[in-house]
Structures are given as C-alpha cells and as structure tokens.
Here is the input.
Amino acid sequence: MSLQSFSKVQFDLLFENSRDLVYFMEKDGEDFRYIYLNKSSIEILSQKVVGKTIAEVMKPSDSETIAQNYHQAVVKKGQVSYQDYIYYLSEVKKYETTVIPIFDNNRTYVLAITKEIAFDRDLEDKYLFMRSVFFNSFLSTVLISNDGKLLEANPQFLEDFNVNIEEVRLKKLIDLPFISNQEQLEQYLNESFDGTHLTSKLLTFIDKNGNSRSFTATFSPLIQLEKVAAVFIILQEVTQLIEQEKELRTTSMGLSNFQYAINSVAEIIIMDPNCRILNVNDRFIQQMGYVKEELIGNTLEIINSRTHSKEFFDNIFSILHKGEVWRGEICNQTKNGAPYWADTTIIPFFDEDGAIKQYINVYYDISEKKRMLTELQNIEHMFKLITENTNDMIVITNEDGIILYVSKAYTNKLGFDEGELLGKFYTDILSPESKVKWNEEFSVDSDGEDLKIELIHQSKSGENFWTECNYTIVKDFLRNKGIQIIMVAREINDRKAIENQLSFLAYHDSLTQLPNRRYLQNEFPSIIESSNSNSESLAVLYVDGDNFKKVNDQFGHKVGDEFIIQFGKALSRSIRGNDLVVRMGGDEFAIILTGLHQEKISRKQQVKQIVDRINQNLKRGWLISNQMFAPTASIGISFYPDHGVSLENLLSHSDKALYGVKTTSKNNYNIYSPELL
Here is the structure.
C-alpha cells in the first residue's frame, strides 16, 4: 500500500480525538508541506494551513527550528524528539515534539506528534531546598545571598561549570565567567530578592567544555523573619525531563508536592513495598478508565496486560531493591482491555533507616508511538515485499558511491550474491565508459531533483547490458552535500539495439552498408584535426564507375544493385586501415586517404599505389548471376591543404578533376589543378 492512498478519513480515525497536536507533512525541497492536521492542531493553526509549507505559515525563526528537526529525522531515518515553547492565548506553554520519518517510493513524509509538558515547579522547588536534595541532586543547584553573592553550590553545579567552591564563594554570581547573559540573570535575581518565586526561566551558561547550554532556571526565595535571606536556583536542561524524576529517589517525604508538580505531565502511581496502590493522579484515572476506589488497595496485577514475562518483572525489582531507579517500556492494560504502553520510571523511596518505604511509578504514554511504529514496520515490510519482487533493479549508495542496499532483481541480473555487492563501489559493476560517465554526472550539483542516466552494467560473468537509471540524491541540509543516492534501474538492451540500428542507418548507405555523405560530414572535422596535429596531408578521391548505366540497362536493377555492392567492396579492399570509403550516391564513391606525406612527390607516389590497387581489384572482377564483371573507374583527386581546407572545397575540386578524366579517356585518374576551373 502506498502512502499516497493514506486518506484524511484514515488520519482522523487515528488522531482526530487526540489531545496532542498531530501533523502529517510531505517533504517539499528544503521545506515541509502540511497535508493533514488533527482537531487540536487546527485550533492553533487553522485549517487554512493545509497545502502550505512551514515557511509560509511560521515566522522565519520558528520555521527554521522546526524544519531543522524534521530534516534531522529524515537524515537519521529514525525518530527525533525535541522541546520548544509556544505563546498561545497569552500563555507560555512547553511542548515536546516527536518526529517520525516515513519514506514511500520517491516521496518523504513526516508524522509530528506534539505533547504539552507542564513546567510549573513551584511546589517542587520548595521541597528542593532541603539539604539532602541540594547535595545529592542530579541538577545543578546554587544558593545565592540577598546581595547576589554565591553562598553554596552542589557538586553537580561545580562539575558542570568547572569551578572550585572556595574560589567562587561570596563572589557575585553575575560576575562569574560561565555566565553568558548577565543582564537577564540580574533581572531574575532582583525579582526573587523582592520575594517573587520564578519558574522555568531560560538562561544560557558556558559549561566546563566551553559549550553553550540552555537551562530552565527556578528561583525560590528563602524567607526568614518575613525577609528574603537567600535565593535558591535550580538549573535543568530543557531536553532532560528525567532529571526531575531522578531527584525523587533521595527521599520519601513531600510526595504530594512532587505529584502536584508533575501531575499534568505524566500518569503517577504511588505504591507500598508490596506493590499495593496507595494513590494515583487524575491523569492515570483518565487514561486507564478506572475510578480511584477501584485502584487503591489493589496491586499492579489489576493493570497487568500479560504482555511481559515473570523474568521481566523479577529483573525490575532486583534493580529497585538495590535502591536504583528502573526505567523502560511497560505495557499495561486499561479497564476496557486496551493495551497502554508507557515509558516508565519507577523510583524507590527510603525511610530514615534506609528501608524502602514506597515506590513512585511515573508513566509517559507512548501507546500512540507504539501503534505508529507498528504501522511503520508494516509499511516497511510492504515496501520490502515490493522492492524484493519487482523487476526493477534498486540500489542505494552513500556519498562515496559505496553500495548500501541492492534488490534481488539486481543480484539476479548481475549474478552476484548480496554480500558480494554490499560495501563495494558502485562503479565496480559498470563498464569503463559508464564509470567515466557516472563520475562526470556527480561532478555537477543536482540540487536533489530526480534525474536520469543511461549506464552499461557488467555482470559477474562479464556480460554487458544497458540500463536506464532514475536516481535521487538525498542531501544533508547543513552541509548541502549528497549523503545517499537512491537509484532504480531498468534494462533497455532491446531499445538500445534499435537506437543503434537507427543510428547506423542514418550514417550508412542502406545498399552497401558503407558510410554515407552525412557520416563523412560528421567525421571530417576530426580527420582534419588529426592530420594537422600529425603534420600530415590527406587526399580526397572522387571515384565514378565507368559505363555503370549499361549494367543497369542490360541486366536490370537487381544485378545493378549487386554490382554497386561489389564495387564498394573492391574499393574497401584497396585502401589502408585508417582510410575511409564513402558512397556518395549512384555509382559515385569518395575515398579519404589519411596519413600522407606533405612532400608532393612522396604523397603522389602514396596515392598512385592505392589507385593501382583499386584498378587491380576492379580488374579481377566478380561474378553475378553467372555473369562476370570487371569494371573500370575514373578518379579525381584533391589534396588537403593544397586544394582546400573544407570538405566542400575538396569534394568540389576532386569532382572537377574527375570530370576531366570522364571527358577524355575514362579508366584513369587526375589530380586537381587550378586550370580545371
């Protein structure tokens, strides 16, 4: 099934009621064009964007960021996720977008699924003031005095920014070398010193490797005696939501605060050491279809989908009992029996004695992704079935021309095993002339359009066959350089044979199969060029059979035609390998003698030897219908460059020399001289 038949109805069945923003788009050059949008995305962008590109809909800064991530997924040929912020209805919202590339024949599509992520962490930040969290946090955290001086920093902060706490303590934070946007940071600090709690403020820092990294920063004022005594700053990389989860394992206290902070982000279960459910958040109830009373007090067996083995769960709890966080994919089951796939993090919480007191399970719904991946796998399987059973030969190479994939039609035609072709240079299976043609083809920038080329392939047995190849270069949009060449080839031996036959007929006499006047006109410039480069002369002989009309009149045209054929063969037997016999029409022939001396006496002797051979071969004659023919010929001769430098002049002057022979003696030859004018 081709994606071209993927309809709006099918798209709506999958995504219309999804609260996530879903876009189905087609790659259009360096941009992407909207094909289908679900209801949630139409509320933000409107139905009018269908058929338009990202660049036509978005601001340049936004469209460049989106297209860059889409291109990354296409080039990677795999799923890419990224996060960004959108201002909608005067509210800042944070989103995570998953981009899935889809390749269908010569077309490329992407499916983009955008999920809102809550980032109000006010209650969580208050809990993070605790010293145990401060020093064991996986996030960079720092405590700032109410006059802007650095009081304390956790080990993660010191490691990230390569500083020694003794060297920076009691120094102004905004003056430290790893701060790259001092004015913005100073503004946030001043607001915090006034008692304002700030969350998810974007800041840029320079880490220990000199790299610029963007963080969301939370500023929490520490109140003492109704005054701000200090400000606690937590830095979290925008793309690493899991850091939020890692901090949960440091304590079992304040679970309700953490639950509130991430309630709108994920589905949450809190359970005791025996996996009995203590509490669930609203998102989990909505997702699973239960009411809270049906879940609380039950074990996780109630949502077990029977997808995983006992060993799978044994492995999870062996990790948790060590006090470590487990993360992976689990398939649960909703109340109505539907599978619910989740990217799951399970975090153990300990009491003061170090014993596990509770677990918190954080689920991120990936059911849609799983369904989409299954669909993509089905499409990939279908594509493989098509490519493996088509007569067209399909090959994919990298930018260096090394074969990455070949279809069965290729291996069958070439006689190689697949392993003999993979990793081999594509030019190794081309004829020498096609290697040159192929390399010349890719010395010119093709801008990624679909192109066509005819190449000669060589099979393992040495057999040559012509192919017509349609190919596309998939480019790296950052380097603007081809990284893969996808080519579909079809054998065209029969067509090339017809083309060669037509070409032969266009440049050869149909009766004698000798070159004709058109052939001579086409080749003569190269003959002249060769003569000049070798400092040689050449001769043009105009040859006319004597009394040919009598042959036709006496014996008929059939015998006359055979006579002309044998006459041409006699001339061909008389010349050297580098000379040329051309039928001009009727019983008239032209002979081009090359490689002659420029010295006139020697040249004349060379020509006389060939004329003598012509007369001898004609005198031997030939038998046609039991009738012996031994004709004679009259010959006019002109020399290059003595009598002209163009073909027309040389033919005209040799024809005048021939006329002089025909009007006097026949069966003779004559060299052109100006007196013949």
Notes: The chain has 24 helices and 27 strands.
